[in-house]
Structure formats: C-alpha cells, structure tokens
Amino acid sequence: MVALSDRSGELARAALAPASRSGRLSRAIVAMLGVLVLGGIAAYGYQLVNGLGVTGLNDDVFWGLYEVDIVTLIGFSYGGALVSAILRLTGASWRGPITRIAEATALTTLVVGAVFPIIHLGHPERVWRVATALQINSPITWDMLAIITYLIATVILFGLPVVADMGRLRGEPGLPGWKQRLFARGSFGWVGAEEQQRVLNRSLTALAIVIIPLAVMVHTVLAYAFSLTSRPGWHSTIFGPYFVVAAIYSGVAVVIIVSAAYRRAYHLEHWIPERAVINLGYLMAALGVLYGYLLFTEVTTEGYVGGEASEKLLYALLLDRWSLLFWVFVVGGLVVPLTIIAFKRTRTTTGVTVAACLVAGALLLKRFLMFVPPLTQPLISGDIGAYTPSWVELMVTVAAIAAIPLLLIALFKVIPVLSVTEIEEIAVSRGEAI
Amino acid sequence: MTENARSNGGPSGHVGIGLFDRATTVVPAQDIRCPLPDPASREISRRQFLHTIGAAGALVALKASGVQRILASEDLDAIAAGTLDIATDHQWVMVFDLRRCDGCRDCIKGCQKEHFLPKEVEWIKVYDLVDAQGLEYSMPVLCMECENAPCVRVCPARATYYQPDGVIVVDQSICIGCRMCMAACPYDVRVFNWDRQPQPPVPPEHRGTRPEFTAPQRKGTVGKCAMCVHRLRLGEFPACVEACTMDAIYVGDLVEDVMSNGKETFMLSQYLRANDAFRYRAELGTAPRVYYVAGHGQDLDF
Question: Do A130 and B156 touch (CB under 8 A)?
Fold first, then answer.
C-alpha cells in the first residue's frame, strides 16, 4: 500500500506536469501559435469588412477551403470521442492514459471547427435566422442542430471525469492557491466514495453510448449538405459513411499526434506506454483500410457506369487536372501510413506518429478533392471552373490549425493531462499496482 | 398526348372565355409550328396580352370559390379544358423558341441593364451547345421557377420562397449567404453577390431591397432571376423578352393559358403541345416552369 500511494503521488505529479512547468521552448511555441491565431483573426476581420469577395471563391466554386475546414476539423474531433467512448464501452484497459487527451482533443478541435459554419457565411451576423426560421428541410439546419448537440455532449464527456480528478488532486502539494480553490470548487464535493464512483461510471457509460450515434449523425448530415444535391461527384449514397469513416480515421490520427507530443514533451513515457500509442496505430490502420475500400468502391461504381459527367470528373481526378493531388493522397494518406504500421521495425511511437501526421494532413487534402473538383466541372456546358484559396482563406485556416494546440496547451495548464482517477480505477479493477 | 393533339390538329376556334381575340384564336397546330415574327403586329398583340393578364383578376374571382391550390404546369390538360380550380391571379411561365435563338446575348444585356448588374453577373446565361447531329445551337438558361424547387427546400433561413404567382424570390435582407441553394440548384442559375466589381449606379427611385427587385444587389447574398415580376405587375414584359431581337422568348400565364413575346400571342397549352416543347432536366423531378422548343432535332433531354 505504501508503494501504491508512492506511485499515486508520481502519477499526480505527472498529470500536473504540463500545468507546472513551462520552459523557454514552450513559451516560444505558445508565442508563435498566438501570432498565427491573431493573424487569422485579423484576416477574418478583413473578410468581415470587405465580404466574401476577398476569398478565391466564385460562382463555379462557391464552396472551398472554409467548407474543407468545417468537415476536417469536426472530423478530427470524432477520433477523440470515439477513442474515449468505444474503448470505455469495450473495456479496453489500455485506454486509461489517453482518455483525457482524447477527450480534450475532441473538445478543442470541435470548438474550432464549429466556428467555420459561421465564418463561411456571407452574412454571419444573420446566423440566428437559422434558429428562428427552423427550416427543418434544410441540411444546414441539420448541421447546426447536430453540431450544437454534439458540442454539448463533448463538453460533458470531457467535464465529468475532470470533476473527479479535481476532487482527487485538490490537496496535492505544490498546487498554487488559485488552483487549489478552483479544484475545490470544480470537484463538487468529490471524495471518491463508492457511490460517487458508481454514479460517475454509469453517467460516462451512458454518455459513451449516446456520443457514438451522435457523432455518426454529425458527419452524416455534414455529408448531406453535399450529397443531397444533384451534382455529379457529390450526389452519392456513399457520402454519409464516407464522411464518418474519414472523420474517425483522421481523428484517431490527431489523438496519436497529441498523445505523442505530450508523452515526449513532459516525459510521460511511463504513464503513456508505447503499447497505447501502437494500439491507437492499429486502430488507425484498420480505419485506413476501411477508408481505402470505400474510396475504391466509389471510384469503381462511378467509373464503370457513372455516365458522362462522372466520367469527366473521374478522369480529371485520377488522370488529369487533379491527379497529382489525388495520388499524393493515395500514397501519403493510405499506402505509406499503412506500410509504416504493417512492419514491426517501423511500428514504433515515432513511426506511428509520423503515419498519423501523414493521415491528418492527407485527409484535409482529401476533403478538398471531394468538394472542389466536382464544382469545377460545368453543370451544363462551358469552361472548367477554377479555384485558388486566397491569402485570407489560407491565414484563417492556418490560424484554426494553430488554435488547436494553443487551446490544448491552455487547457492542460489547468486540467490534469492524465485522467488520474480513471488510471487508478482501471489498475484497482485489474488488481494491479499502477 | 402530344401525338394526339398533333394528329387531329388540336381544337380550333375561339378559346371560349371571351378574353382573347384574333391573335389568341387557336389556329391548327401545323400553322403555329414555326410562326414568323410580324413586326407590324407587335403593338396590337402586346396590348392584347396585357389586357388579358389584367382581366385575369376578375376571372379568378369567379373561379376562386373552389379548392385553394397553386396551379401546376403539370396540369396542362386541365388548363386547356378550363376545368381547373385556381386561386391566384397569375402563374408565370417562360417559353424559349430555340429555333429562333441565335446566341446574340442581347437578353443578358437587357437583364443586366434592368437590374443594374455588373457585367460579370448573369441571371440569364446563354450556352452554346452541340446537338447529337453535331449542329450548333444556343440555349438561354434562367431560373426555371421550379414547382418542386431544391433551392427553396434547402434554404435554412427561409430567405428564398415561392410567391403566390409561382415565382421564386430571394429576400436579400434575410439571406445569410450560406450558398446551399447554389449547391442544390441543378441549373446553375443562382449567383452570389461577391461584389468584386463596382455595380452600376442605381437611380434613387429604383433603390431598395424588395424580394422581387433588389437594387443594388446586397453584398454577401444570393441573387437570381425572378421573371421580372416587378415589370409583369405593371403590365410590362420581362427585360429579356423585350431585349430579344429574335422574338425567341415568350412569357406566359398558366391561369390564362396564354403566352406572348410582345409580337405574337398564342394559347400556351396549344403551342407547347404543337411544338413538342420540353422542360430542361425535368427528369430530376423539379417541375420547371420554363419550356423549350427544340431547334433542329437535338436530344430533348440531354
């Protein structure tokens, strides 16, 4: 028992490490991210004043990088929700050290992604009309409803275990006074009693059950904004599942990246074992295979009897105008990451992290290839449309990507990076020392 | 049905409601297959048409006692037979005679002038196409005023909606600029006001944001053709109809079963049947209210 409490103390210190230490490097990183985010906010201000004319969008390609951002960022958030929820429901014991990081990633990517449905509007100040009009036939209304519901569920999924951790850690020595007061208040009287544990576990299980279909719904209705039109390349029954699988695939990748980053930066190797990272890699690989299969069946079905419009689009995508980007995706987003995870020699924390970075980037590119090329094909006749994102769109997008680590850093300055109570509980239930 | 009407030449004689005279007297189908423009008749026909649409109100008052419903262009038989219950003054349609269109794009210019649109913004577009025989032809495309419009269905702000006369309008004081309607439209006729080029100056008497007529166009919203209902209401022809030097564009009214290009006036249902009129991409189920008469044998639903 003495040993256990010793290790407990170490665990608590490790969980609070990002909150207590901040070196020169981390301050430099925060400053850089802050500059990028401020740049994006300034660029958006410029867009607010001058209108969407400052983007590269036009009447052919009227949706572009902002819509890519919506789907990609909200897609990222699904990985965190899934890792936390599915691993909890299946009782995977290796989830312990990564649930907090997964839930925090889900929350931050979703918060940033949820801003983009407003950023992409011509009149963002009128967005409230979606609520008052309540046009239940519109995919945009479904998007807004689904995203808000999902956001609420994600906040609760993130928040509940934090309450327990605050109760567990509030007496921790070395905690600054303001944090002691915050933890005392945020713990809502948590003392780790059996009844409290039971209520928490039941709530988390219920939430895990709810959040999986909720996330499926979010990505399906995001897909519906495209597939419920009569446009070749968009109008496809595969789009719903396609979006869902892409979301989990890229989302697990982002959880891997964040886990690996915190593992490395704060020497959490003992608490986040290589096994957890590699298991996430296996999960990502399985989803990659599934995504590759969906891509294959989409191309085959459309290409074999898709009709003239599909044929032209596929030709442009696979062999002509967009072929370089398309094959970069296939190689960089599927072949290379799957190969890295397939071989034992490359299946290390570093290897899996490299694969995850490739997947996250490639899936952003894939969304671009899903949305933009179909719009450049003329519906009736005429010239091929063109679209190059403007500096405003690029700055806003870079700012959004920078905002994710910035928010995570800020979050883990206050909240423990490891779910202490969950790690301890899993250890106890397995009869192991932590 | 078309076959039938053509083989027996269609009904001939007066329509029977007493509002039409010479020009709307139905002539045998063969004779109206390709009517020649007659500049001398322009003013007379024009007055007849305007007289016709003006008198429709009285007609509606008589007929309105029945079922309240929006007249559908699917009901051409009932329109011709005069057995349809209607509750609106007008149900506007347009007819393009592609045999006459030479692709000069005067309609675009007329539209842009009327709506104070910059040169890049086209509410009516002209596509130069090639038919199955390799022959070139031009096809103007404007808002089809679909009775089952995808754009209206997807608007999350209810900023675009049907007027009682069947015309779809955008209220630019409500539009949030999400462009979902542009994605949904199978005809690519909605344009976004990116406002990259300066708009032509709008005289004060035309300024204002009304669902039917907004000038200048509001930045960050979607604009589209509304069949110039602001002109129709005053008894004037749509700007593109007036601008067309080939007399290829007709505006019609399902309620009165009449169509005119300002020079010739025909009985709408008769003309559409006799000339094998088709609706563009009607297989999508949009029930468009714009009809085309094919020129020289191109595919009817490419």
Answer: yes
Segment 48-87 of chain A within 8 Å of chain B by CB = 51-53, 57-59, 62-63
Q: What CATH number is attached to the domain comprising A38?
A: 1.20.1630.10
Domains and CATH numbers, chain B: 42-293 (3.30.70.20)
Structural domain total, chain A: 1
Instruction: Tell me which residue in B141, B153, B192 faces A122 most closely, judged by beta carbons.
Output: B192
**Whose CA is closest to A309, among A387, A376, A399, A393?**
A376
Predicted complex: ipTM over 0.95: no
pLDDT digits (tens, 9 = 90+) for A166-222: 888 887 777 887 888 888 888 888 888 888 889 988 999 999 999 989 889 999 999
Residues in chain B with CB shorter than 8 Å from the CB of A226 are 183
Residues of chain A in contact with residue B194, where contact means CB-CB under 8 angstroms, are: 51-53, 57-59
**Phi, psi values for residue B79, rounded to 5°:** -65, -45
| Dihedral angle computed from the Cα positions of residues B255, B258, B260 and B264, in that order, rounded to the nearest 10 degrees | -170
Q: Which domain covers residue A48, as residue numbers?
A: 6-429
Is A164 a member of any domain? Answer: yes
pTM over cut 0.80: yes
- Nearest partner of B92 among B296, B265, B270, B238, judged by Cα: B238
Q: How far is A228 from chain B (nearest CA, A)?
A: 8
